[in-house]
Amino acid sequence: MRVILLRDVDKIGKANEIKEIADGFARNFLLPRHLAKIAIPQALKELEANRNKSEEHNEKELDILENLARKLQGINVIIKAKALQNGKLYGSVGAQEIMAGLRAMGYAVLAGQIILTSLVKTTGKTSVIVKLSPSASASINIIVEKE
Fold first, then answer.
1. Phi first, then psi: what are they for 21, rounded to 5°?
2. Could you read off the pLDDT of 17-37 as tens digits, one per residue?
3. Going by C-beta distance under 8 Å and a sequence separation of 6 or more, which residues neighbour residue 103?
4. What is the DSSP letter of 109?
5. Residue 39 reports pLDDT greater than 90
6. Contact 105/141 with Cβ under 8 angstroms?
7. Which of 147, 144, 124, 142 is nearest to 77 (CA)?
8. Least packed by Cβ within 10 Å: which of 3, 61, 107, 132?
9. DSSP string of 2-53?
10. Cα 12 from chain centroid?
């Protein structure tokens, strides 16, 4: 039986794929759990229309992310932290603190998009990569100052 997967199914396939599945498996498992629907001509037309809409949406989203990466490139994010006289921090500055600093500046970035080679443990300037998508990334400067 040919079915269109509605969700990712382990060892079967990803969402929106057309698969040839055993009749019993489709009737007894996939269809009752709303994991797939039968690939009739109308459903195939809907799938193609959804793919086209999805591609357009992805292109627009990629343009937005690339524009944000251009805006972020080279900006300085100043973070205040408690430090000793020699510049060593009591704690460390991680992705959460950098994300908060960027949000305070008006940039919507997630902590998971900030690539740190190691936590910042001293005052001073450090470069960090913000990877918004596989093709859009920016290098920003983190300036840690004593509080």
1. -125, 150
2. 999 999 999 999 999 999 999
3. 109
4. -
5. yes
6. no
7. 142
8. 61
9. EEEESS-BTTTB-TT-EEE--HHHIIIIITTTTSEEE--HHHHHHHHHHHHH
10. 25
Q: 40-63 burial, b for 16+ CB within 10 Å, e for fewer?
A: eeeeeeebeeeeeeeeeeeeeeee
Amino acid at 71: K
Both tokens assigned to 75: 């900006």
- Residue with token string 């195939």: 44
The residue type of 64 is I
What residue ranges define each of the domains in the chain, with the CATH number in brackets? 2-64 (3.40.5.10), 69-146 (3.10.430.100)
Residue 53: its pLDDT value, please? 83
Q: What confidence tens digit (pLDDT) does each residue in 46-75 have?
A: 888 888 888 888 889 889 999 999 999 999
pTM summary value: 0.64
Sign of CA dihedral 98, 99, 101, 106: positive
Beta sheet of 136-146, edge-to-edge order: 76-81, 136-146, 124-133, 114-115
The span from the CA of 6 to the CA of 14, in Å, is 8
